[in-house]
Design a protein that fits this description.
The complex is a heterodimer of chains A (177) and B (233).
Chain A (H helix, E strand, L loop, with lengths): L36 E9 L10 E6 L13 E5 L5 E7 L4 E2 L5 E2 L2 E7 L7 E7 L23 E6 L2 E3 L2 E2 L9 E2 L1
Parallel strand pairs in A: 1-10, 1-11, 8-9
Antiparallel strand pairs in A: 1-4, 2-3, 2-7, 5-6, 7-8, 9-10
Chain B lengths: L35 E2 L4 H4 L14 E2 L2 E2 L4 E10 L9 E5 L25 E5 L5 E7 L4 E3 L5 E3 L2 E6 L8 E6 L10 H4 L4 H5 L4 E2 L10 E4 L2 E3 L13
Parallel strand pairs in B: 4-13, 4-14
Antiparallel strand pairs in B: 2-3, 4-7, 5-6, 5-10, 8-9, 10-11, 12-13
The chains are: A mainly beta (177), B mainly beta (233).
Bound molecules: fe (ii) ion (FE2).
């Protein structure tokens, strides 16, 4: 039996290190990493559409070659601000091998922790311009009308937006892995 | 490349539900739709490794002892298969002895302690052991219902070998009279699963003339017993 999850509560900022939202920071593990520099941003809202201003978002993604065992550490952590926004700076991941010799479209794993979440939520961010989205093994499990909740759209070149809705209309697709 | 072995899914009742009627903050935050059951891939079977300094003693800040009862907390981090997690980062945070967090949003009318920050980071050794020194935290009120108080607890954040093992939980103290009243603790239906969140007083962890010791072991998800059950999806 695995240990029960418990909410991160409202005071998780004691383990918030704001610089971790910049995966390319000069004194971090990826200083000088080569690749297409991108910004990932969005807001978190609840079932009333109210901004969630006390959530902790973590991301985990592959390097531009689709590897997790290279030098690049695709991990970031960012709190939502007073407008419910999060924002990461990183490099764009490449396609990642899937199960059974399949190929997954480039994606970013997202974990959401907050007061009121007794277990964290898991979802993914995909990129709207990727032809591989059409054949992605995970996206194909998601009802087509809900796939858009996992696909980020470009705001300006290099800046991708994905809003997370915890509950209600256009609720984000969450994953059980 | 061979496919990663899926992690076992939780035994029903041993994890808290997202929607918990007696915990008010879940009402507007718990998703209404069932999650999509997805296969384990490299993305979830790999995890960050952290080359960061440890900070294992919360009981002293700049040479000054924090107020309160000094304690030691130690335990092992294993997976459900019994394998120790080596080099895993364990982050902990907590309220001070008076029940107040060193945090701008905590407005509880209890004193702050300039010599207590309430945050530590340690790494497990080759046998999965972690250990830190701190101050026994105080209970604090919250607004969930009339006269609601959180039992004394320490927040724990852990990384395993796969991002799907990621865990944030809370450690409670034995004999706390607030435990049978706490909606967060009680949200997990299975009594044994709840009791595993309660540390045990341990004379072996206790250090003579220094501090009482508590043992708190943590189990992350382990390999599924039937690895081919969900090999294709
Ligand atoms: Fe707390």
């Amino acid at each position: 039996m695995s240990t029960a999850h418990q909410t991160a509560g409202p005071f998780w900022h004691l383990i918030d290190f704001p610089e971790w939202a910049d995966l390319l920071r000069a004194d971090g593990p990826n200083a000088g990493a080569q690749g297409e520099r991108i910004t990932l941003q969005g807001t978190v809202t609840d079932g009333d559409g109210a901004l969630v201003t006390d959530a902790m978002i973590e991301i985990w993604h592959a390097d531009p070659e689709g590897r997790y065992d290279g030098a690049f550490q695709g991990f970031g952590r960012c709190g939502t601000d007073a407008e419910g926004r999060f924002r990461f700076t990183t490099i764009k991941p490449g396609p990642v091998p899937g199960r059974g010799n399949t190929l997954q479209a480039p994606h970013v794993q997202i974990a959401i922790f907050a007061r009121g979440l007794l277990q964290h939520l898991t979802t993914r961010l995909y990129f709207a311009d990727e032809p591989l989205n059409e054949s992605d093994p995970l996206l194909s499990l998601v009802p087509s009308e809900r796939r858009c909740t996992m696909i980020a759209t470009p705001v300006i070149p290099g800046t991708w937006q994905l809003d997370i809705r915890l509950q209600g209309g256009a609720e984000t697709v969450f994953l059980d892995i | 490349m061979s496919d990663p072995i899926p992690y076992a899914r939780a035994i029903p009742g041993t994890q808290p539900p997202l929607d918990s009627p007696s915990y008010g903050s879940t009402h507007k935050r718990a998703p209404r739709q069932e999650p999509i059951r997805a296969p384990l891939t490299l993305t979830e079977a790999t995890s960050p490794r952290f080359a960061l300094p440890s900070h294992a003693d919360m009981s002293v800040v700049e040479g000054h002892a924090a107020m309160g009862e000094r304690i030691i907390v130690a335990g092992r981090v294993l997976d459900e298969g019994g394998s120790p997690l080596r080099g895993s980062m364990v982050e902990v945070w907590q309220a001070n002895a008076a029940g107040r967090y060193h945090h701008a949003r905590d407005q509880h009318d209890a004193p702050l302690d300039p010599h207590f920050q309430g945050q530590a980071r340690v790494f497990t050794d080759d046998e999965g052991w972690y250990r830190f020194t701190t101050i026994r935290p105080g209970a604090y009120p919250w607004r969930n219902h009339h006269n609601a108080w959180r039992p004394t607890h320490i927040h724990f954040s852990l990384f395993g070998q796969g991002f799907a093992q990621r865990l944030i939980t809370q450690m409670y103290f034995p004999g706390d009279p607030l435990l049978p009243l706490d909606p967060i603790f009680l949200a997990t239906a299975d009594e044994e699963a709840r009791n595993r969140l309660v540390a045990k007083f341990d004379l072996d962890v206790t250090q003579p003339e220094f501090a009482l010791g508590y043992r708190f072991d943590i189990t992350l998800r382990g390999p599924s017993a039937t690895p081919f059950e969900e090999g294709h999806a």
